[in-house]
Design a protein that fits this description.
With 191 residues, the protein is an all-beta fold. The chain is 0% helix and 45% strand. The protein has strands at residues 4-5, 15-17, 21-25, 28-33, 42-44, 57-65, 80-85, 88-93, 99-105, 110-114, 123-129, 135-140, 143-150, 162-164, 180-188. It is globular, with a radius of gyration of 15 Å. The termini are far apart.
Length: 191
């Protein structure tokens, strides 16, 4: 089926392509996300309990920004979403591609780390949330960046699908759109 992306880990987390396109990448194929198209880009439905992580967690991806993020003029979200789950564990890059952002709960306090990025260049980005479910560290190309941040709130378990490339609120399916390519997403339930 042409609109299905298969999970290569064998865990069965297949995803459905919306507006995302498959493009060539250094390690095979990646997903390209375009700004301002107001559709769900890529979802991993239905609810998979192993992705409902509220404690220790590691999330990572290869990303290649292709311009400013979230150019859909949504004033409530200026970042480009790498992935999120119903607003929980929301991993993003800032509008100008100069910061990594992580929130346990959408709209809540955020952990932020400055990064140097170049439009059109690949980089590996990651966050690690400690067992307390609140302390977050960031990494770029395997090296730690910034200082650990302790968030005031824990994430919530929910039945929402994992979304890649945008958050996709029910009333704004194009919210917080990523502008660029995303590849090699990994999510672990450990720090």
């Amino acid at each position: 089926v042409s609109n299905i992306a298969f999970d290569q880990t064998g865990h069965g987390f297949q995803g459905i392509l919306g507006a995302a396109r498959i493009v060539s990448a250094p390690c095979g194929n990646a997903l390209r996300f375009g700004p301002n198209n107001n559709v769900h880009e890529f979802t991993v439905p239905p609810f998979y309990p192993p992705l409902n992580i509220v404690g220790a967690m590691t999330g990572m991806a290869m990303i290649r920004p292709l311009g400013l993020q979230s150019t859909d003029d949504n004033p409530g979200c200026q970042e480009g979403t790498i992935f999120s789950k119903g607003g929980n564990y929301w991993f993003q890059i800032s509008k100008n591609n100069k910061q990594l952002v992580f929130q346990n709960v959408g709209g809540g306090a955020a952990a932020v780390a400055d990064i140097q990025s170049c439009i059109g260049h690949w980089m590996h980005v990651a966050f690690v949330r400690e067992a307390d479910g609140r302390t977050v560290r960031f990494y770029k190309n395997g090296a730690p960046i910034g200082s650990p941040t302790t968030l005031p709130t824990l994430g919530n378990a929910n039945n929402d699908p994992l979304m890649v490339g945008n958050h996709g609120f029910a009333n704004d399916p194009g919210a917080c759109e990523f502008n660029g390519d995303i590849d090699e997403i990994r999510i672990f339930d450990r720090a």
